[in-house]
Specification:
Residues 1-20 form the signal peptide. The chain has 1 helix and 8 strands. By secondary structure, it is mainly β. Strand 1 (48-54) and strand 2 (57-66) form a beta hairpin.
Length: 158
């Protein structure tokens, strides 16, 4: 009997304490909660790190890192280049007009690249058409028809 008499006041004090800590915040029509907002950020499908094997030098891979804010970093052997890119996806997702990629090199360290050449490409603007072989392999082509392709890049990192 004593045990029951002690348990009831203990349970009552715990239940009152738990209700006292609970705070109810009124919602108004104009209030918005950041927890209820959904943001969808899209990014170009080309974003990420890509590698291209050089046909004449199998030991050297040229890397293209397409980063956010349209920045691209290219590493080829001892050569490092930094520039800007603009990726324009196919307007209708068909093979009639492939995606276009425009790159402008802003700076490079003028060292020897994977092909053994040492030339300053600062200020150069290049345009390629991107042929998607699969989600992890792309080909750079010189024409919209995809018949003058010269470089195959494989995705290294997403």
């Amino acid at each position: 009997m004593k045990k029951t008499a002690l348990i009831i006041p203990l349970l009552l004090s715990l239940s009152v304490h738990s209700f006292a800590d609970e705070k109810v915040q009124p919602q108004t029509k104009n209030s918005t909660s950041s927890a209820n907002l959904i943001r969808i950020n899209t990014r170009p499908e080309i974003l990420g790190l890509w590698g291209m094997e050089i046909p004449n030098n199998k030991k050297c891979t040229e890397y293209y890192n397409f980063r956010g804010s349209n920045e691209v970093v290219v590493n080829s052997g001892k050569e490092w280049s930094i520039g800007l890119y603009d990726y324009q996806p196919s307007p209708d997702n068909t093979l009639e007009k492939p995606p276009a990629l425009i790159m402008q090199i802003k700076y490079e360290n003028n060292e020897t690249d994977c092909s053994g050449r040492k030339e300053d490409q600062s200020g150069e603007v290049s345009q390629y058409f991107v042929k998607w072989n699969n989600p992890n392999t792309i080909t750079f082509c010189a024409s919209e028809k995809g018949d003058q392709c010269f470089a195959i890049l494989r995705r290294v990192l997403p």
